[in-house]
């Protein structure tokens, strides 16, 4: 087998995602799974439930993940990479533990994991590692073999993630009314998180104080800068841009990252911006946050203001993203074999670490998390 297509030591890839309801009867149990023990106000839950009911109780996320699975299997087959791909979720079927049980039943013992979250944060990184720890502990408790799981590095700055978003922004600009195009602002959006979580995102060396936002904000700014520069290079126009936030939850007295996209649209309108492209760089695919918070709520806000807006495409199942996943997997496989492969990354931050160090994206209450430097295996600590 040619070195560059050798997945050894991995024997399978696991796509690890959030999960979402598939019908109206799933919505409340899904929200209960998401919010278990997290202290989200009831009012917020009712409101978010309504977003799902507006779409027939079906989250777009599962269909998007099925498309990504197809794209990954096609990419692997087209490149002679013989590696099965599985899918498991944090909050809805197929549940992570069930998928891992199937995987060990199929004989897999060394599993590479791709999370559908590109950036560092508790919700997007450590929480998935906690989910893996819980699932491995469940397997162990059932007397099943416990596989080794390795989480692939953050890919926010991988060209296979960034370039499709550049194309998306270019397509959105091209669709704006001609007289508004040149002066259009770019609003890069991501999920708001508590400023305390933002400040402790990434490795301890990345941590900041006073709401500066740590690795979470730094990584998004790096991607936003790259996209704006690529758009400038392509169109010759330097569009003004800003990183803004969406989908805030939590209690109102706790500070979360701001400004919100809707407030930002108001401010841009007030200062005379002719149009805005909303680019949801924080989301790998068209999640409910994109379909509701941007396509429904923010778009209605813009219409009320008389401000032309366009929402650019997420990466979704773009073949360049599937190729990036193959690249990340083969890169990590080579590293695990003791080689020093090329580690592809755009922007100023460079490729992210393979193994989350101790203290990376800490939880409010410490609990076991797999696939990081602080993981000793399910034998060492049983989760509560
Ligand atoms: C950073 C981040 C990502 C991106 C990284 C990643 O992709 O993982 C993300 C993704 C997602 N979040 C999602 C849904 C929800 N998130 C919630 C709540 C929260 N998210 C948070 C952060 C994030 N969330 C936070 C700090 C909370 C507060 C409570 C807590 O600390 O946990 C709630 C509860 C109600 C509400 O408060 O909104 C829901 C329903 C879905 C599925 C969408 C679909 O169905 O298409 C997806 C992909
Ligand atoms: Fe969320």
From TrEMBL:
<dbReference type="InterPro" id="IPR033644">
    <property type="entry name" value="Ferrochelatase_C"/>
</dbReference>
<keyword id="KW-0627">Porphyrin biosynthesis</keyword>
<comment type="function">
    <text>Involved in coproporphyrin-dependent heme b biosynthesis. Catalyzes the insertion of ferrous iron into coproporphyrin III to form Fe-coproporphyrin III.</text>
</comment>
<dbReference type="Pfam" id="PF00762">
    <property type="entry name" value="Ferrochelatase"/>
</dbReference>
<comment type="pathway">
    <text>Porphyrin-containing compound metabolism; protoheme biosynthesis.</text>
</comment>
<dbReference type="GO" id="GO:0005737">
    <property type="term" value="C:cytoplasm"/>
</dbReference>
<comment type="similarity">
    <text>Belongs to the ferrochelatase family.</text>
</comment>
<feature type="binding site">
    <location>
        <position position="191"/>
    </location>
    <ligand>
        <name>Fe(2+)</name>
    </ligand>
</feature>
<dbReference type="InterPro" id="IPR033659">
    <property type="entry name" value="Ferrochelatase_N"/>
</dbReference>
<keyword id="KW-0350">Heme biosynthesis</keyword>
<keyword id="KW-0963">Cytoplasm</keyword>
<dbReference type="GO" id="GO:0046872">
    <property type="term" value="F:metal ion binding"/>
</dbReference>
<keyword id="KW-0408">Iron</keyword>
<keyword id="KW-0456">Lyase</keyword>
<dbReference type="InterPro" id="IPR001015">
    <property type="entry name" value="Ferrochelatase"/>
</dbReference>
<keyword id="KW-0479">Metal-binding</keyword>
<feature type="binding site">
    <location>
        <position position="59"/>
    </location>
    <ligand>
        <name>Fe-coproporphyrin III</name>
    </ligand>
</feature>
<feature type="binding site">
    <location>
        <position position="128"/>
    </location>
    <ligand>
        <name>Fe-coproporphyrin III</name>
    </ligand>
</feature>
<feature type="binding site">
    <location>
        <position position="289"/>
    </location>
    <ligand>
        <name>Fe(2+)</name>
    </ligand>
</feature>
<dbReference type="GO" id="GO:0006783">
    <property type="term" value="P:heme biosynthetic process"/>
</dbReference>
<dbReference type="GO" id="GO:0004325">
    <property type="term" value="F:ferrochelatase activity"/>
</dbReference>
<protein>
    <recommendedName>
        <fullName>Coproporphyrin III ferrochelatase</fullName>
        <ecNumber>4.99.1.9</ecNumber>
    </recommendedName>
</protein>
